[in-house]
Amino acid sequence: MAGGMKSLAKETFFYGIGSVLPKLLSWLLSLYWAFALPEVSDIGVLTNFYAWVALLQVILTYGMETGFFRYANKENDPVRVFSTTFISIAFTTLLFFLAALLLLEPAAFALGGAAMKPHYLLMLVIILCFDVLGAIPFANLRFKKRPIRFAVIKLVNVVLTILFNLFFFLGCPWLQTLFPDAFSWFDISRGVDYVLISNLAASVIQFLMVSPELKIRFTFDRVLLRQMLRYSFPILILGVAGILNQTVDKIIFPWVYPDEAAAFTELGIYGQNFKIAVIMVMFTQAFRYAFEPFIFARNKGAAGDRRSFSDATKFFIIFGLLIFLMTTGYIDIIKKLIPESYHVGLKVVPIVLLGELFFGIYFNLSLWYKLTDQTRWGAYMSIFGFIVTIVINILFIPRFGYMACAWASFIANLAMMLVSYFLGQKNYPIPYNLRSAGFFFLLSMILFAGITLTYNNIPELWLRLLINTVLIMLYIFVVVKKELPLRELPVIGKKLRIKN
Fold this sequence. Notes:
Radius of gyration: 24 Å
Strand content: under 5%
Low-confidence stretches: 1-6, 292-301, 486-493
Oligomer: single chain
Order of helices and strands: HHHHHHHHHHHHHHHHHHHH
Number of domains: 2
Number of strands: 0
Largest sheet: none
Mean pLDDT: 85
Shape: globular
Distance between the termini: 40 Å
Helix content: over 70%
Number of helices: 20
């Protein structure tokens, strides 16, 4: 047992490095683009592109990663499962590539009119195809319990992407001054091209690094594939609905916004300010790594375990609200991560932060359908959230622009959280401490009102930061006093007990 837990901890550590650290580095790179690219509309184009990539990756893998794990562990011949899965993915990816080539120009125009150049779309399609083809080999690394190789390849991919970007946006301008003839091809106004070329080169190298997993004797089992497709189809629906909840606003914005010429500029402003709120997303993902194994490791149904689930959710809310207050309280510093031309969109940050906090709470509440094997409810609620999101966006983007996107995320995640709570209490009652959650939410909103007043009425930066620090420390003091008694804390509690 101890050996198994040690192995699990090791794998979780390396998979965490291979998943979270690349996302953090990619986040920092995407913030850098706003400084490197000459036009705000360029950021809008990239925001739209990568929203499409996230959606199409889910569609083109159609739940087969999960299907591979299910049947590789179930069948006696995991190589046959891997081979069948990869052949299926490769065939559908080839069909997608050929269709994209045939429809390249009309598809580019449909996505963004004159602002969307066909060669942008071509590079994006090639990037997507290489990433999709690598999905099952990466899954095979996880199946074979090779977390170090998995993490190394993922890290190399993002490091190369960053280095290629730095070459184009820092190296080439400097080299152009030294060797103007040799670097006459470089044109900073083609910044989107250089971002996509960097991504393409890194994706190709990543696929080559994972390609040794393809050194097998390929076989294809039609009966097995049909079984896997039946198993994976509900996962596809759940995945599409889930990713659309996060990306549909960025996908449809250029179609719905009434001023076509300004659509990508407005989307660029929204996209960069949305990235500030990703701080909350990273907290949610980090919590997920710890929380999901925790809930499945507990003895289902025990009263003490349900109390543990309640406490875990309570502290998630408390620390999530602390992140909300720290982000908004120090927004004067955090906004330096994006150029001043984007600061007009900072008003979306508190809305998106709270929306992401609601989504994190929804994830915590979702354990009821996981522990009762009613996972279909996850699909139902994702579809419900998607419908709320797209309706609000279509109705209100024409009038309110990207503010409608922020409020759509807020309302949809709030609605999913509330629906999941009430259904969960009916199917798997857990004694959540609503009084505590309500108290800290109300306290944080009062303190946020104070932060907003300082931001709008006090011109001196140092004084704003000082007042906001006092407000944040007040929240921390109340948390420690009410929920974290000093006697129960390590070291401090021991000293207090010795003193008494």
